[in-house]
Amino acid sequence: MNWNLHMNKNQWVSVCSELVYKYDRDRMMCISLAPIEKRELLLAILAFNHEISIIPELVSEPLLGEIRIQWWTDSLISIYKGEKPEHPVALGLSAAIQTCGLSKCLFDHFLVNRSFDLKRSRPATLDDLEIYARGTSGALHELMAEVLVDKPNKKVRNAASNAGTAWALVGLLRAIPFHESQGRSYLPSNMNSDAGIVAVAKAAERCIYEARSVRQHVPYSLLPVMLPITLVEYNLRKLIRCGYDPEVFNLRGPGVGRLLSFYWKALRKRY
Description:
The protein is mainly α.
């Protein structure tokens, strides 16, 4: 697609907002608590995540997906060299990188781990799945932490990473019916389906616990990155009530309690 070479800020913000509103509405709700100038940069990061995560659904074979990921890899290299991109989401990333000095290694880590999606093979173990979740959504949340906190320390980074990892793990559980329809599965191959679902849920619970264990060291400004934990926890409890059955979970819909829990935590400025 040929993008407008003279696209202004309002235009790339609009494109990113539309993508995130359509495909990542829960996290858009969370980052709505960030200051407007920070929120726009967070939108760009989440829109970038969508652009990468949808690649397996757009290609007929892994090589074509690798080409798309390489395009983004090359685009990031150009951005870090100071070159202005044409793609609206890349323009947003450029603004975030220039404004906040985002770590290139986190983008590299994210893209390398996202390449696993193209293989359509299952993680061998739970540890492998956690590495994938931390390398994708965990890295994404750490990038967002760099937008919200100036020079985040190790505890802040770990809290953000754990929030993102928990988000990814529960998201993969919720997506089991969809992935099965595509002939894919992210459950550890050394476990049967039922045991794998329970193990992944327990892993998500551990990430939530670890994120909350350093809550006293996390500044309020990081709340938009940490609040997804509230939604993850609600979904975990719902999954347990459904007997760890993702199909029953999805049939019951999101529920009003999810929003009530979110807004209660947001009002208390806690996660």
